[in-house]
Each structure stands twice: as structure tokens, then as C-alpha cells.
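ok so i was messing around last nite and threw this chain in just to see what happens. nothing serious, just curious
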Amino acid sequence: MRASVLGVMAALGVGLVLASSASQAAPTPPAEPKPEGPSVLLVDANSGVAKKGQAVVTKPEDIKALLVSEFARQQRELKGQKEPGKPALTLRIHRDCQYAHVVTLIDAAQKAGFEDISPEPQEK
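result:
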């Protein structure tokens, strides 16, 4: 009798282990980030540049780093598409921004790799 009780307990234990491991679902892989698409940078009257919702940068090396990172981000996003386009940049420029600063930004964007650059006025 003792052997049969141990056998039943062992069988139940194995069954519980199998049932509990089978009920655990496989972990869901993390969702891939949603593509942001073309870069849009805001240019203020004081030569500051910012991506919407981020801090304004004014130092030339910080602006260059922002442009390079935006170009690289778009290249990664475009790589997986069937018909990849080219990274694009829109500069939304404050009406009081100096023209020379706009020219400098366009030059820096070209050096970062952008070919499709569209300066446009900021909406009020």
C-alpha cells in the first residue's frame, strides 16, 4: 500500500509540474518602435534648434550631433522598407531667425548626409 501511495503522489507531482509549465505562455517579444518618419526640427529666433518635445540646443557641436543622429535614425527606419527613400529634413524656421543661421544649418545638414532639406516658416 505504501508503494502505491508514493507512486500516486509521484504521478500527481509530475502532472502538476507539467500542467504548471504548460500554462505559462511564452513571453511576448517587445514591440518594435514606431517609425518616426522624416525629421522636423524647429529653429527659434535665437539660433536654437530642437526636435519637437525635446530641449533646445544652441552649440554648433550639439546641433551637428542632433543632425547626425536624426540622419542615422532615418537610415535605420528606411533600411527595412521595400522601396527605401532618402532621409528627409524639414527646418521650421522662426520668422526672426537670422538668414545666415539658416544657411549654416542647411550646410550642417548636408554634411550630416541629408540631401532632401526643406526650410519652411513656422506657423504662428
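not much to say yet. Residues 91 and 119 are 5 Å apart (CA to CA).
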